[in-house]
């Protein structure tokens, strides 16, 4: 292997190590910040539980969204309605809604509850029923899909209620004990990341020294 190639490979390794250091330092800072917040009481056990609940809800509601989007008439509502498709639509419908927009609102946190989700679905269907004549095929398909989807939402709400009422309540003292164990675990991970960063920096110094020889 030629000397120029060795130098090139060494330089590539140096750049790779620099990138790894930046990533590790970023993870270390975030983890350290979380630990400090917990220890200072700024992030308590209820915060952790609420965050976990929200993530579980979002995962479940996205499954429901996919079921709605797979309905045989869902193609009518997959994208925003334009005036080209439906003449004077924007003059008739003042607050448009479609499945793509609803999904985006779920992902960005605009829609945060099942009630919000249900409200926007109803808005979407009511817009279609209001714009189209009751003899129109779109009206009939929208009405049928609305009935099917609202039944799915009702089932989702019933399941959600059952899970919430049957879920055992963890005593606050036990939650705090679990949280402290989590803090200790986080501190160990933080320490390990710090050592990993130091090891990478050591290799980086060695590689830089090697390029100067």
Automatic annotation (TrEMBL):
Extract the CDD domains matched here.
Bromo_brd8_like
**Any one annotated GO CC term:** NuA4 histone acetyltransferase complex
Q: Could you tell me which PROSITE patterns the record lists for this protein?
A: BROMODOMAIN_2
Bromo domain ranges (all copies): 69-139
Instruction: Tell me the InterPro entries matching this sequence.
Output: Brd8_Bromo_dom, Bromodomain, Bromodomain-like_sf
Query: Sorted alphabetically, which SUPFAM superfamilies does this protein's record hold?
Result: Bromodomain (SSF47370)
Q: Which Pfam families match?
A: Bromodomain
What Gene3D superfamilies would the database entry show?
A: Bromodomain-like
This protein's UniProt keywords: Bromodomain, Coiled coil
Q: Which residues form a coiled coil?
A: 7-34
The record's PANTHER family line, in alphabetical order, gives: BROMODOMAIN-CONTAINING PROTEIN 8 (PTHR15398), BROMODOMAIN-CONTAINING PROTEIN 8 ISOFORM X1 (PTHR15398:SF4)
**The protein's name in its UniProt record:** Bromo domain-containing protein
Q: Which organism is it from?
A: Ciona savignyi
Q: What is the lineage of its organism?
A: Eukaryota, Metazoa, Chordata, Tunicata, Ascidiacea
